[in-house]
Hints:
Keywords: Membrane, Transmembrane, Transmembrane helix. This is MotA/TolQ/ExbB proton channel domain-containing protein. It comes from Herbaspirillum seropedicae (strain SmR1). Helix 2 packs antiparallel against helix 5 (about 90-125). The longest helix has about 70 residues, at about 170-240. The chain contains 8 helices and no strands. The chain folds into 2 domains: about 1-165, no CATH class; about 170-240. The protein is an all-alpha fold and about 240 residues long. The chain is rod-shaped. About 15% of the residues are buried.
Amino acid sequence: MRCCRSEWRREHVMDRSVLGFLLPQWQAAGEGGLQLVFALLFVLALILMPWLVRRAATPAQWQQRWAALSADPQSLPSSITPEQLSQIVATGPERWARLVPGLLLMAGLLGTFIGLGLALGEASGALDGAQAPTALAAVLDTLGAKFRIAAWGILSYLILRLWWAASAHEQARLAWSAAALGALAAQAVQRQVQQEQAQQQRLIEAISHNGQALLAAQQAEAQRAHVRHAELVDALQRQVAR
């Protein structure tokens, strides 16, 4: 029982220490403001990015962008694939959702380097005083906490990447792009069929018109032949009568 209790206590202390490492320390001298800035940055990114993407990643927005781009055919490639169309119609928040995790990761590293620079500056200043060992020990004791901002950046990166993969916005936009291109191809085929039908109708009308003209010409020629035949018969009858 004591062994189990000791194990539980060690795990509890470890969990509490990890949680204590991740939680900001506003009372840290010279770093409270720095941690506040980066904490607000990460929290705002984690809240705003999903909200903005949820509002922007809709078929209505994609259709609006596709209609605007279709108005200028020269801005589009001659042959477009669903993947290319998916990238073309992607909204601003969707594009930023793929960049922000990496930017947050870099921001976390930047905050850590700034914190380390401040800590090293404090350490160099502590070596000049009479209480050098005590001051240096205090600086070294908080040196590990300088990596807190980097941990925030890594966690923010992982959270946003996992959210982006789980939300399936990319797959939904790709499916919409494939459907849009399919509908566009169907419309093109329908227009081609209509053009062919119109061309066939014009050809039939032309043939019919030419046939009627030929029939009228044949009837006129037959009428003239009948008149000439009648004149010839009349001439022969007059000659016989003489």
